[in-house]
Amino acid sequence: MGAPILLVTAAGLAVLGLGLLVAWLTGRRLVAFATGGAALAWAGLYGAALLAASLRSRQEVLAPGAVKRFCGFYLDCHMGVAVERVRTMPRIGDLTTDGAFAIVTLRIESNALRATLRLLEPTMTLEDALGTVRSRSRAAEEAWRAAGGAVLPLDRDVPAGGHYFADVIFEVPAAAVQSPRSPLLRVTEGYRIDRVIELFVIGDEDSFLHAPTLLALPRPKLGPVSG
Predict the structure, then answer these.
(1) Are 100 and 174 spatial neighbours (Cβ–Cβ below 8 Å)?
(2) Hey, where are the domains in the chain?
(3) What is the dihedral of CA 126, 132, 133, 139, to 10 degrees?
(4) Average pLDDT over residues 22-40
(5) How do residues 99-147 score in pLDDT, each as one tens digit?
(6) C-beta separation of 68 from 206 below 8 A
(7) Which residues contact 30 (CB under 8 A, 6 or more apart)?
(8) CB proximity list for 111: less than 8 A, separation 6 or greater
(9) Among 2.60.40.1240, 3.40.47.10, 3.40.50.740, 2.40.50.100, what is the CATH number of 60-216?
(10) Entry pTM
(11) How far, in Å, CA of 101 to CA of 221, rounded?
């Protein structure tokens, strides 16, 4: 419901803005002030509802294998991402690390009935067991690709009802590997203009101050893992 409410609000404020301009240019000052007041009240109520929804939201953590759906501004909710498995390695080719490389295999899927879809400029970060937010290790991904790993673009086209698997890699320190706390993966998607719009969609995960939905990873263990 958030996107339709935003559209109605934007249309209503545009009409009120036009009415204010016409009233001002024609010298009807009282009408202009009343119209401006109505626009401000409407915008204020919408802003209050947006803030209230975000402050009431709570961080959600999906279990390994659960699918996170992406609805965005268009509300189709067909594209999804799930953590298929996690492997850890102390080295990839000639590349080494003090902790481990966490190789996260993602299942990227679509439950659309007819259309071919894809994620729109997906980005992701990993919050390790120590609470540090980490970006993907591009060097490790290049080494893994050279070794035959499935480092594929995350914005590939997905046919209706289809899916594919792709690996992303994060460098995790030894202290985080040894911690009993599970790492958390945050995945977002959408063009920049979409993300700007979604800041103002009531209840949207990407709206202003809204708590995120994260994907839990199985706790990685140091050393090569088969499979």
Answers:
(1) yes
(2) 2-56, 60-216
(3) -70
(4) 92
(5) 889 999 999 999 988 889 999 889 999 998 888 999 999 999 999 999 8
(6) no
(7) none
(8) 78, 80, 161
(9) 2.60.40.1240
(10) 0.78
(11) 10
Q: At 118, list the tokens.
A: 């894809």
Query: Tokens 């009935």 map to which residue?
Result: 113
Length of the chain counted residue by residue:
227
Q: Which amino acid, one-letter code, is at 222? A: L
Q: Which tokens go with 219?
A: 């706790």
